[in-house]
Amino acid sequence: MEPSLRMITLPVCNLKRALSFYEKAMPFQPVKKTIQPDATHVALKVKDGLVLVLMLRSEVSRIYGITEKANNGTILTLACESDEEVDAAFANVTATSAHLIHPIQRDEWSYSFVFSDPDGNLWEVIHIELL
Fold first, then answer.
1. CB within 8 A of 36, min separation 6: which ones?
2. What is the pLDDT of residues 4-15, one digit of tens each?
């Protein structure tokens, strides 16, 4: 068996708000069409079998014993295939309640921006020209 990364779980304070944010800011759609009113988590299709799970902080605390309310230092990176994809993602993200950490910038090998979602999770959206 070869291990592979298939799921990322993000703790959120408000599931409905988080789901609305990710449906608008990113091209992610729920795995299930209907979300139960008492749901503690929701799974979103990302790409190539990767799933992003938004889970209520209270549930994360109950299951994993994690009570940290701030970002844990993890940065999630959404790799784009072109600068135009980065620009489109920037337009989507800035039309939401995201907090822009650094605006679009170009350096010698990439084109990117960084933002945090409403729960403080950090995201980098990047096109790496050498990939």
1. none
2. 678 888 889 999
